[in-house]
Design brief:
homodimer, about 325 residues, alpha/beta, D-Maltodextrin-Binding Protein, domain 2, nine-stranded mixed sheet, two-stranded antiparallel ribbon, 12 helices, about 20% strand, disordered C terminus, DNA-binding
Chain lengths: ~325, ~325
DNA sequence: CCTCATCATAACCGATGATTATGGAATCCT
DNA sequence: AGGATTCCATAATCATCGGTTATGATGAGG
């Protein structure tokens, strides 16, 4: 019934004292104001403007509108300002979820870049394994999920979760075999998994464990998993103590130097992909786009060309 | 850029959770919502709604709009409610100005009627002689002026002030000659002014004095004005004291009984008209219309047929 | 008394914003 | 699985809104 334009007109009349100058103030012509007032009057069924001679005055009802106009227009301006602030990265929010082993290196670097580049956007970070982070993304509780996918093995499993989502390849993370420094194969240039079929194994998170089983199966044995822990520091500790061997991704190993263990590249090599995942719409939100760029940069990937399909993903 | 309709839509989406039910809630069809959102998005240049699968969620920018919508729409509703309250006489204001001698009888009765009939409108009353009250009316400081005009004499003078204004005839107020009870003519059925050419006169307000002079002139003499006071009680007191005679309108004489004086009808009779004056636009304001009706009723005039020309007014 | 300033009105016209009809895609159910 | 359902997007259409220019009426002022 009453809209913002009408209020703006009433306020302009109240401020300017005549239709003509109100029109000038608003950038309209005089008849526009004239019939706008008439429309408002017949819509509200009340007299809003008193025409006396060639001057106009607001009636009480007109003054009511003009008075409310101040607040309403201010609120509209405030909303508009907030929107443009978000659009201009002077405000905004990104909710990031990343898997634990990325928290040590990739995420801090990303947050630092983001903070330096856009100090006014607020970034929240939650640690979550890919299944949970993708669920949060789907659920609307998260804007960007950093996930990983092992090549080959359970890619298909993840892939179904990625329908309707967009992914950006951040980096390839090579998986290495970690053995005690005193291990006979410690000095080898590369490790063939079959040579370690008799070892005791230390497994990580469920999906990592699945990857281990998958690789071992290809190598023709079933690993004897003696320990399971999602904490990579603990895994390395166990290896150092000579209690077994483990598959650990480079991303972890690069975070800090670990003595008394040898990290051997696998032969054939195995790697996992680190991915940034979001939704097509969120991708276009400035703060989210900035976060994605920061992630790519922190990972050392080309921010442009990384909007890629999963390697080996079917279509 | 952002209008009330857009905010309403965003809020409906936030509340309902889908375009379809938002459309139902607002009484629109689904495509209307769909393209309303699209328009808003390209106007603001931001993503407001995140389409994930077949569900929709507001982005941060969208939530900003939905949040502001609450306040803005509430303010609009409040404005609308105030307007309809004014239209429905559940609120509103009437600023009444009346000349002093009407304050005693006509105005109190009017205010009583108005208060009984529309207890929620606020009436303010200011005493003012017709020139001032009409100036206030012209100036926008008054909604209804109660004025009087003597027949014949200075009607033309008032008439020019009445251009652009509308008048309602409230009553005819006959002017009587007041003489001491001991006066030789005190028992007469009527008074011919010429018979009192030798008296000392007590004159009232400037316009009343003008009327006296005019009548006397017609009767062929120039009155000896010994006293001037705008206070009718004082005038009657002076008459009672035998210090002179005076012309006093019925309106005053009916307000209270005055002993020791005789009130004689003039021959030929002279009367003044009591008028309610307002502007054409204000006439259509409910509270003003109610006040006019109350005035007519208090004056005993027919509220319908009283939108009259001044008696003798040229066109 | 004439001129200027201001508002009202008419005729016109483009953009806005709704509708119906239809299509595509994700979710749900069997 | 696959089919039905549900939800959003799009296209085509159309009325109304809200603006413009041109013009008229009228009060105010030199």
């Amino acid at each position: 019934m009453i809209d913002a334009a009408g209020l703006r007109v009433m306020k302009a009349i109240a401020d300017e004292g005549s239709f003509t100058s109100a029109a000038n103030a608003l950038g309209f012509t005089q008849p526009a104001i004239s019939q706008m007032v008439r429309r408002l009057e017949q819509r509200t069924g009340t007299v809003l403007v008193e025409r006396y001679g060639r001057q106009v005055r607001l009636t009480e009802a007109g003054q009511v509108l003009a008075r409310h106009a101040v607040g309403v227009l201010a609120a509209l301006d405030a909303a508009e300002e907030e929107i443009t602030a978000i659009a201009g990265l002077r405000a905004g929010r990104v909710r990031l979820q990343a898997f634990p082993s990325s928290s040590a290196t990739l995420v801090p670097r990303t947050l630092a870049i983001l903070k330096a580049r856009h100090p006014d956007i607020t970034v929240t970070f939650t640690e979550a394994e890919p299944p949970e982070s993708l669920a949060a993304l789907r659920n609307g509780d998260c804007d960007v999920a950093v996930a990983f996918a092992y090549e080959g093995g359970d890619l298909g499993e993840l892939e179904e979760d990625l329908s309707l989502l967009v992914t950006r390849r951040l980096m390839d993370d090579e998986v290495r075999l970690v053995v005690p420094g005193t291990h006979p194969h410690a000095g080898d240039a590369a490790a063939s998994l079959a040579d370690f079929s008799g070892e005791e194994w230390i497994a990580g998170c469920p999906r990592c464990r699945g990857h281990l089983l998958s690789l071992a199966d290809t190598a023709g044995f079933r690993p004897n998993v003696a320990f399971e822990t999602e904490d990579y520091v603990a895994q390395l500790g166990l290896v150092t103590a000579g209690l077994g061997v483990a598959l650990v991704p480079d991303l972890i190993l690069n975070a800090a130097k670990h003595d008394d263990v040898a990290t051997l590249p696998l032969s054939p090599a195995s790697r996992r992909q680190i991915l940034a995942v979001t939704t097509p719409d969120l991708q276009r939100v400035p703060a989210v786009a900035a976060a994605l760029d920061a992630l790519c940069e922190a990972a050392g990937a080309d921010p442009k060309a990384s909007t890629a399909e999963l390697v080996g993903a079917k279509t």
